[in-house]
Amino acid sequence: MAINRYQTVQKLKSNNLYGTFKDHILIRNNIDNGIISYKEYVTLSNDRLDVIAGREYGDSQYWWIIAAASKIGWGLQVPEGVQLIIPNISQVFTILYS
Length: 98
What we know:
By secondary structure, the protein is of the alpha+beta class. The protein has four helices and four strands; from the N terminus they run ββαβααβα. The radius of gyration is 14 Å and the shape is globular. The protein starts with 10 loop residues before the first strand and ends with a helix.
């Protein structure tokens, strides 16, 4: 079962709405500080973050980790030639959920 990106987000208005998602800041800061290792990947034509996540992590639901690490928006489709940061998923989970 995948870990939901909203798992650590506070709920608002009687638990009906999610607050601000801040895990992307933790991911980026820990990559920049050398705490989370990563590999780089340059996108090809028709690459999608969910497909890349499925290939790299075995679960397409982790596309948001690659988006956060790569400082890109939340769209799944990315143009050809974009340099992605693909962080070590075990280190990401340790930072976010321990």
